[in-house]
Design brief:
This protein is an alpha+beta fold. It has one domain: Aminopeptidase, CATH 3.40.630. The protein contains four helices and seven strands. Helix 1 packs antiparallel against helix 2. The protein is globular. It holds the Pfam family Acetyltransf_1. GO terms for molecular function: acyltransferase activity, transferring groups other than amino-acyl groups. Keywords: Acyltransferase, Transferase.
Length: 157
């Protein structure tokens, strides 16, 4: 698991984001009958912690989780309002098909969903230096000084 202390949160002004992105995959909001399949994908490709976070987004009457689908198979996911209100994440794409704008499409579809639900800003929580550039280029995310405190209250990191 990544050292939470080395991470920080990002702020996105949803009024400044261009939500258009080209990708060859279908991006869909998850329907409840597909929730178990999505959780299995996240557990198999990422972690139980991320699967737990995603469950909070999935098990709502109006899911706040999107998936990328190729040939009726889940290949990526992104959630918001999972760990906290106004927070984006987690997000992940099957590593065998990365580099095709799927992650960016999932990010932007989720942020657009947040904007349509009335949010003007989104927080991307617990980001490392390794992925900061992706968020900065994709949606103009900026670092929040002295942040990433929400994850300190987890039972285990």
């Amino acid at each position: 698991m990544v050292d939470v202390m080395a991470n920080y949160d990002l702020l996105v002004d949803l009024n400044q984001v261009d939500f258009k992105v080209e990708t060859e995959v279908a991006i869909k909001r998850v329907l409840s009958p597909d929730a178990d399949e999505v959780v299995e994908f996240i557990t198999a490709h990422f972690s139980k912690k991320w699967a737990s976070e995603a469950k909070a987004a999935l098990y709502k009457p109006f899911s706040s989780c999107f998936i990328a689908v190729i040939d009726k198979k889940v290949v990526g996911f992104a959630c918001y309002d999972a760990t906290a209100k106004g927070f984006f994440g987690p997000i992940g794409v099957d590593e065998t098909i990365r580099g095709k704008n799927i992650g960016k499409a999932l990010l932007l579809k989720s942020l657009e969903g947040m904007k349509y639900e009335g949010y003007h800003y989104a927080i991307i929580g617990g980001v490392s230096d390794r992925v900061f550039t992706f968020y900065n280029k994709s949606c103009g995310a900026i670092k929040i000084e002295n942040s990433a405190k929400i994850y300190l209250s987890m039972i285990s990191k």
